[in-house]
Every structure is written in C-alpha cells, then in structure tokens.
Amino acid sequence: MAETAGNHLCDQSPAAVRLRVPERSQVEMKFESVDDLVKADHPVRVVWRVVETLDLSAFCEPIKARAGSGGRDATDPRLLVALWLYGCIRGIGSARELARRCDPEEGSRAFLWLCGGVSVNHHLLSDFRVEHAAALDRLFTNTIAVLVKQGLVKVTRIAQDGTRVRASAGASSFRRASTLACLQQEAAAQVEALKRLLEDSRASAGLSARQRAARERAARERAARIGKAIEQIPQLQQRQDRLARRMSKKQKETKLKEPRVSTSDDEARAMKMPNGGFNPAVNVQLAVDTDSRAIVGVDVTNAGADSDQAEKMRQQVEERTGQKVSQHLMDGGFLVHDQIERAAAQGVLLFVPPKPPRKREKYGSQYQPRAKDSQAINDWRVRMGTTEAKEIYKQRAATVETANAHLKEHGMRSMLVRGLTKTKCVALWCALAYNVMMFARHLVG
Length: 445
Fold this sequence. Notes:
alpha/beta, Nucleotidyltransferase, domain 5, 3 domains, six-stranded mixed beta sheet, two-stranded antiparallel ribbon, 8 strands, 10% strand
C-alpha cells in the first residue's frame, strides 16, 4: 500500500520511477548483544578501558549495599564515572540530557553500550556528579600522578587563566540586606502558616502525602536560601570597605553601592562577562602544563578578579604533582607586585606583562627599572622586555586558553548546579574528561 502511494506521486512522469519506500510493518528477526552496539574502535570503549584502570575505591566507601545485608544493589561507580566522562567529552553538561541518552527507547548506542542494561535516571546522575567532591578531587590527582610517573607532565612551566562561567542564579535574584531581612520574615511566616495548614485535617484533606512533603520542602528550602544569603552580607561588606579605603571621595559616591546577594545561589557574584554585561557567574581557574598541555590545577572562586589566584594555584599544582613549579605564566589580570616578590623568594619566575606607565615621559618603557621598586620587581620588568620572555609568554594563550575554550564547549558553558563546591565538581569532571581524551593511551597502559 505504501509503495503504491509513493509511486502515485510520480505517475505524471513519462516513465515510471522506482522508489525506496518505508515499510514499517515488516517483521524482522535480529540477534544482537549489547556489545554489538558500537564498533571495536569506538571512542566510548577507550573511555571504559581507562575507567577500568582507575582506583574508584573512594566512590565505593559511602555505598551501604553490602554482602550479607538487605536492600537494592547500588549502581557501579565505574559506570557513573564513565557516563560523566564520556558525556563531558560529547559536550553534555545536563543530567537530564545524559539520562535521555541512556534511555533504552530514545538513547544513543554509545551510552546504551556503557549502561549494558543498567537503568539510570537524572536524579542518580545529578547526585553522583556533586556528592563525591573529595573522591573526585583525589581521582583527578591520581590521573595526573600517572602522567607524572610516565614523564609526560613535569610542571616546570605552567600557564594559568581564569574564565567566568554563567552561574545558576537569576539576574534579578540579587537583594540588599534590608530586602533580605523582609524576605526572611516572610519565609518564616510562610513556614508557620503551612505548618498550621497541615495540622488542620479539614483544611489539608485534599492534599496527598507527596503534595504535603513538596510544600514543606519548598518552604524550608526557601527559608534556608534566604538565610544563607544573609550570612554572605558581612563578607561582602568587608570587601567593600577594603575597596573604599583605596578610593577617593568622588569614586565612593559614584561606584560603591550597597552589597547584594542572590537568593537562588548565595555564592554567585555579578561579574563582567565577555558579552560586555554583568551576569551572575563564578570564576573557574585552570592551570596547564605547557609541555604536555595537561590540566594540572582546577579551582572555582566567586572573586571577579584574578589577582589573588596565582599563589593558591601554584601551591595546588605542586601538591597534586609533587613537582616544583619554576615558571608561571599568566595574563595582566593576575599582576600583583607583592606576589612577584614572594615568587622570586621561592625561586619562581613569573611571566606576566607589566602595564604601560601613565606618564611615559617620566618612567619611560614599562620594561625599564624604577628606583622605587625592589630588585625582584626590576628583574621582572627587564626580563619581560627580552625576546626570550616574550616567546615563552606566547605559550600561555596557546595552552591554557585553548583548554578553557575546550571545557566551555564540553559541558562547562554554563553551570547548572549551585554553590562553589558543586560548581568545582563540574569543573573537575570536565578537566578530568579533557585529560582522559588527551592521554587515554597513556592512562590505559
């Protein structure tokens, strides 16, 4: 019938045409195992082979399903780790989308091969991604240790850069202290009113147990979010006071405003974004070994500026690798003279471009020593003016900036979780997936 209708569409042509027409009622018999879903050289098999070599004992420690005890079996951490790694490689940053790819009805063959018949949902995937922060951090360190042991990563020279990623907070969710106090009172009143409603059997007769629990949870979480936002106010006020001490009276009147905190994510901050506007965001810091291009350091902060991030990152890299950093490349946003002096005392050469002087006729070039500066600062100025230093500095953009761009295209374009701890977990998953993709054959071996 379908063929007749299909041919009828072309009956006006001089010669009859032959068409391939869908025949959906045809019964077929297929013999196929899950292992036949993907080819032998498919990238998902490489990810699984890497995961099989990883030490995931830290992910197993919280599991309560043990031999000799009742209850449902837990999902294998190897499967969940592999799903998130391969999901990040494929640019999937949403637990719901990852669950859809694993659905037997509409999922993709690679993810169905990974699952091997084990069902997963977005709650399980979402919880696993952010509930094992310490284990994930250890796993990231262990993979770097493997690369260090093989001589691929030396961190003699590292490059650092920060990128601002849109946070999971509404732009209109930021409130001042006075507004937060009013909202807190409203939330407390709402909790009490709901409590009285649920205690009244007649008024709440039409509510199911699930509806009762949902309303209680929503009221409780709203009050908790507002409480956390209020706790952030003193910290922001102290930061503003420090800024005020460095400003003139006119600048204070025009630039300083009363601190505001988001009621949806109290740890997000309004930051200047690449689009020129201000949005709720977090600052993701990456450090890359310039020789191997491996990501060796990850941090997430809510500071809009990068000026206080260099020393912390260098210390983190040295702790993860057990190696000494000798040269540290970063852009002008990290420039702090005190850090240059401390780095010099530690035997570390910083490669960061000096800012051109406002009065060139007085100070000359930014590479010329100045009488009022210390010896470490003058050495840095002279060093950055040399051709060799400029060639070394080019490696920063060619390594860490490309890694930042890669992570944004592979699951970190915007954060779908809230809080610095959870956003750091997302950044670690993306960085780990990047290293697995770059060094899979070395990690397997």
